[in-house]
Design goal:
Length: about 750
Amino acid sequence: MSAALLLFCHQLQTKGLFFYVLMAICFNVPKIGCQVLPMQASTKNIPHQVFVDWLIQTSSPTALASNISEHCIHHTQYYLTALNRQQSWAVKMYESSGRLAEQLFNTDSQNVHHSTGLFDECLSIQPEDEPFQGQYCTVFFENESVREHENDHDYHSQAILETGKTAVCKEGEPKEHKSNFLMPSVGFCLPSTCSASDLRSAVAQLVGQQLINKTNFTMVVITNENYCYSQNKINTNTIRDDKLAMTVITAFCLLIALVLTATVHEIWSGASPSCSDVAQQNFHIKFLHCFSAKRNCRMLFSTKDDVKDSLACLHGIRVVTTCWIVLIHVAGEFTQRMSYTKQLDVKNASRWEFQIFTNGLFAVDTFFLMSGLLVAFTQIRQLDQHEGFFNIKRFYIRRFVRLTPVYASVQLFLATLWSYVGTGPDWNYVQQMSKSVRQNLWAHMLYINNYVAVIDQQSSLSNPSTGMIEAWYLACEMQMFWISPLFVYPLWRWRKTGLIWTTTCLLFFLGFCMALFIAYDIPPTVLFNRSSAMQKLDEYCRKHYHQTIARIPPYVMGILLGWLLHKNKDSKININRFLVIAGWVVSSSIGLLVIYGMMPYLDVAKTPVINSFVRVSYGAFHRSSWAMVVAWLIFSCTHGYGGYIHTFLSSKFFLPLSRLSYAVYLVHFAYVKAYVSHMRKPMYITEYYFFTSYLGILMIAFMLASVVFVIMEMPFMNLDKLLFPNSREIKKTKKEGVTGLLTKNKCH
């Protein structure tokens, strides 16, 4: 092997295409010239710069490896020979590999080295006379303390550099708090006969135990077969072998066929009107028309509110909040994964104009408030209509039918078909998430996934083991709905007692939330600029972010607001003009404090430690404070104190988009994950690039949501009204029946 490499190095001198490689290796060490020594030999007499220069320029780590498989060695030598002859496939393989850099880590900045190579070009390589293909593998690097693994027998020496230190390597999934690609990574194009273990050993030999900036850290090489891709591997991972996926495809095809049939029938029956009302009164025809795309599209784009006594401003608030949440998720995924501008991203996270999404995770509490409001508002109205009769069975069934079919359809898609819709250097992340969704499908359908997922102590917001990450909200909201009658009914039956009881529970929940921050010393929120806070991100999610009892205060506040609005639905609450102004000033001040309250603590150099009082008070109360801001906004708009804000939020334009908000929430994050996982190259994130990409993703999310709404969400809402009509719908049906009978007699 050494002789072949020496011959190859000698021949490089005659090839102008690779002359710069020769110069890079030999420029500073004329005495050694182009000699390449096997790594198992002593390197004490080799200047370190020689090794580093060669390391930067190399694209084939397996070329100098001494303990890899024979097939890998043989095909690597074959590739090097073909490269020396400038054969097209070998040149393409060389160009498809990334490059190792000297400063993989820089502990003084946030720069992270990514050299991803050319994914698709690598997979297209197929030598004619050798049984291997191009294989694209990603190598990740961690920095760990040298002393941390002194007694760890799972780690082993790979090479000795002139520093006298031992190299460290390991195999496994990259594990960190935010993203795989927060770690340095290099993508190599290798023969498909080289395994991830071969690549790991080869890179570990090259890197060795190199101290980072003369600090007590070592580089750890991480590879895994899941991050190695060849065309054969992708082709063998076919959907035909997945029985559950084929079952889901069959079910989706039947559903689409039903929708097409219903649509054609409705168009045909509408195009050929008949005086007979038999078809109109036939239950089976009504059932079929529930799935009609024509009917459901008409409902989607209608600007007529279908709910009596609805709070018009809620539609605008719902749409704005949905767009805000999509913005936060896009920003998080873009900046936490492959980005060449890591240092700039962290710097931008401290800018005041970016706090709306770097510190905007409380946006979801707007939905908690509105959910509690609508539950109380609608249920108290029904209690009035039925003289206090509470149909608890109907109460829960309607909610389950309203949310679960579309939720289940998205879950089934993610669990089965999602992993087959694309490829990419980081597509393993999507595959692992899909697998996790499949394993925890039962927990999602029971709405307990926020507690089941956190049993695994390794789970985090970015770990694929958490599956559909944003589904924690649905579990929390459903669990809050389960216990909502404990507050709604007492408010209707015993007004004063109900108010005291609900307020006492609200104070208890706030106190419990405060106790969590005191007991577990968790950060006040997700602070991307502070490494100490990010190290506790998983604990923060498990102890607070996903805990229903810690997130319920805005929901209870919504119940109180719903009771107040229903009580005064037929009359306006008159408030002094100066009090109204004071209310807007105070509300705006609280909102700004919530958004910008953490800005003084973003710069670790200026504030190394966050004051305990600030940490506990902000962490425990900033979500409820934001809910108070939104509650004032809704109250003001409902009772005529909203002005132009009410005019904007109550615009008919928001009605169709508001109906899509639930489906957008379900589909947007999966699309963002797939988008960043299929990316072939890291991003240079600028304001123009980010907002252009965000607007495109937002539009696609609403387009996908409209399909889900028409095919899945609205049909089951129609079925709910057909199978379980309320008193108002029964009266409407009887009225339509009498009118139809008169029309029928007139026709005859």
